[in-house]
Amino acid sequence: MIKKKISIFGSTGSIGKSLINILKKDKKNFEVVLLTADKNYKDLIKQAKLFNVKNLIIKNEKSYNILKNSPLSKKVNIYKDFTKIKKIFKKKNDFIMSAISGLSGLEPTLISIKHTKNMLIANKESIICGWNLIEKELKKNKTNFIPIDSEHFSIFSLLENNRTDSIDKVYITASGGPFIDFPKKKFKKISPKEALKHPSWQMGKKISIDSATLMNKVFEVIEAKKIFNLDYKNISILTHPNSYVHSIIKFNNGLTKVLIHDPDMTIPIFNSIYCTNKKNINSKPLDIKILNNLNLKKVDINKFPLVNLIKILPKNNSLFEPIITFFSIIVL
Q: Which of 55, 216, 230, 289 has the CA that lies 20 to 30 A from 39?
């Protein structure tokens, strides 16, 4: 059996590590062609040895020099940027996971689309700031696109063979982070440490803060609008502390579909790489207790005023979305 070729951009981050853990259990069916990191060379070395990877990219100058002078450099090609992509990818990958955080993930995504059959993107900034460019490359190279954020993967899964113009309303859920039940009068005393304690998900610092303010949901609404070609009026946010329901679609034929799974990014990642080759994953039994108390509510604007940004988002693509994305990065 021919192994499927896969590359991971941002393999030492949370999404990258989740994918690595999945691949560890199925090494006989996957060949890891390329791994990349910003500066975490120690984890990158471990991953390279685990999968016998022949190509590494590490952006940080100090980390790059350490790798170039290590014994690993005798067995592995080590690069410090993505200019050598053509040299690395002699044949098309079956999958490329783009999980580099921030705007720095956009350029690698764009230049690698032609080198893969399936592009998996777990990078909000790339989609928000460059979706028109990404979509153009996807169509030009006939590359399949799979969104990895749990909400967008859920929408993607629920749509199946339905056209997006069959959608009446999409509901994206938000856990509300650590402050969903926190009294508004105590908000002034919230510390960064408290804001980083997400009750459902294990995430990086920036996304944890964005989740605490619901800014991440503003970004996810923008993503959904772009990916699925929807109007903002057809997308709503519902708070849902259990993080069990990830999206709801009400179709204009009267049917409504709900997608649920445990708050574990392994599930959308797993299903993205086994989308054509069905494979079982160990998961928890259906939680009837949560189903009987989904506690879905409209967003409390007094607690989460940033959600009001959605009301002033322009209908057409503009610089407004990249500006608020960039501002969010700078502030944090």
A: 216
Q: What is the CATH number of the domain that holds 54?
A: 3.40.50.720
Dist CA 72 CA 244 (whole Å):
43
Angle between helices 41-51 and 14-24 (to 10 degrees): 20
- Label residue 233 exposed, middle or buried (CB < 10 Å: 0-12, 13-18, 19+): exposed
Q: Which of 147, 175, 206 is the last residue of a domain?
A: 147
Q: How far is C-alpha 82 from the chain's CA centre?
A: 20
- Count of domains for the chain: 2
CA max distance for the chain: 63
CA 141 to CA 144: how far, in whole Å?
9
List pLDDT tens digits, range 177-211. 888 888 888 888 888 888 787 777 666 677 778 88
Which residues span the domain enclosing 69?
Answer: 4-147
